[in-house]
Amino acid sequence: MARFALSRILQAIPTMFIVSMLVFGLIRMAPGDPAAMQMGREAAKPENLPRLEALREEMGLTKPIPVQYLYWIQDLAQGDFGDSLKNKRPTIDLFLQKLPATLELILGATLFALLLSVPLGILAAVRRGSMVDRVSMGFVSAGLAVPGFWLGLTLILLFSVRLKWLPASGYVPFSEDPIENLKRLILPSITLGTYLAATLMRFLRSDMIQVLGADYIRTARAKGLREKSVIMRHAMKNALVPVLTIAGLEIGALLGGAVIIEQLFGWSGVGWLTVQAIFDRDYPLVQTSVLFVTIGLIFVNLLTDIAYGFLNPRMRVS
Amino acid sequence: MDASLDPAQLPLGGQKRSLTWRIFGGRADPVLIVSALVLLFFLAWAALPGLFATHPPNKIGPDLLQAPSRAYWFGTDEYGRDIYSRVVYGARIEFVIAGLGVLIAMAIGIPVGLIAGYRGGWVDGVLMRLQDALLAFPSVLFAILVVAARGASQQSIILTVGIIFIPRFARLVRASVLALKEEDFVTASRAIGASDGRLIWRHILPNAIPAILVQITLTMAVAVLVEASLSYLGLGVQPPTATWGTMLKAAQSYPQQAPWYVLAPGVCIFLLVLTLNTFGDGLRDRLDPRVRKL
Lengths: 318, 294
Hints:
The complex is a heterodimer of chains A (about 325) and B (about 290).
Chain A: H1 2-28, H2 34-39, H3 49-58, H4 65-77, H5 91-126, H6 131-145, H7 148-162, H8 178-212, H9 215-222, H10 227-249, H11 251-265, H12 270-279, H13 283-311
Chain B: H1 19-24, H2 30-47, H3 49-52, H4 83-119, H5 121-136, H6 139-150, H7 154-164, H8 166-181, H9 184-191, H10 196-233, H11 244-251, H12 259-287
């Protein structure tokens, strides 16, 4: 097991470096001189040219790109992620400030997805071909095809504009007003969680069907266990393991979706921050948030992978 | 080499039937046929929008935000443009973006997968870590990077789609190569002196084509969603060009006055993605006997 975990970690390290190179390279391709952007309007004045040159020297912009990359990595290692061009604060502070809102949204979406998909997926598998099965499979096809923001718009039209049950947009920190926070969380969570619910339901149903056909289930039935305990105690346990793994791996898709859903619902998380940053041409901020989210995802996937190997010994070999 | 000795020419349990026959022949699958027809319908919109549209897509009219009527089937937008005609013209951009994007992804992904699988060793290791890195990015965030580097445009979306979907093809082809490399018919070919190129071109690649076809349709579905999301954020195709994503972005501002505005582009995205998905799933069921529908 330790060998399996170690090999996965060793695989993740080069991946992280390649990710950082891609982020660095693409941001360096952005138009404009980073030193001039740092100085702002002052940079355009001719008398400031020596200062600009000095700043370029200081920022290492006169060095070749690979050297610049190494400087950047060195800065990152020392916790220096650069300052935002717009409000001159460290980008990492801005990012961390917005992170809780995004994590809350992802948690809400995952909870919604699990609450919907686990009971329906299992029921659909147990009663194959029944009404429940058909409705669930219809939901799966629809859930995989519906664009998240369109679903969100429709939900806003229905529940906020027409019925006036829930607020259409805005984020209120949980610490300020827990009830308002949760009320505002409902629509974005449903919007973001629908795709995940559909994905999980599909896998859960097919896993469950497979497990129900296994020999040990026949044995459990043969020794006279009630159907309920066969399903709940024997089959479900095994069918749930891959589902949890998929939930872990789908966090990336959730984060991508969150960028759009946050925009739609005015939910000021990291996705919202990143989109604002791109419109402000605040490249250091874009760089930090894309890098953090992606590296964070690699970590989550790594943990999911190792957890799966722990739960399912057959995985460790391949 | 004598053609009659070529293992690829030997009958292999019905596998030598033509691809079209394998997809549509025999007992017809109604879901597959229906989704193929819907796809053809959208393709017709994309190919000949002038034939289907009732108005020029960018023609500004006096009737702003009109409800659907006989003159304006899906109503009009905030500039008095006909929503139905704009939706029809939007189809072409969806197919261009999804099609070119997937083409780029294939053009890079398939050779990468072939080389990685065939060579193995450190080449495989390096190429696959690159794929892992690309897979790690949420597509929208990668798109934001591309937009930072090149600005928001149709080309940027195509490039984004082309890059982020490389791993889908690379991994798929690599897996097929690894599975087929040790098959008897490949070994037989090698034994009678076939070159690496011939082995890949004549034996390994043709056997991977069904899986690639399935992947093309499924990837196009995701590409349509990516276009819609980016254009919705304002990071994609720029106005006044009509795409389904940009239309939705505009529609968002008029939930009270024109609730129908949101409907047409949304339903089109939904239908196109749904049919691409069901078509892809249907293809998989027919072409890949290992994955029987549960």
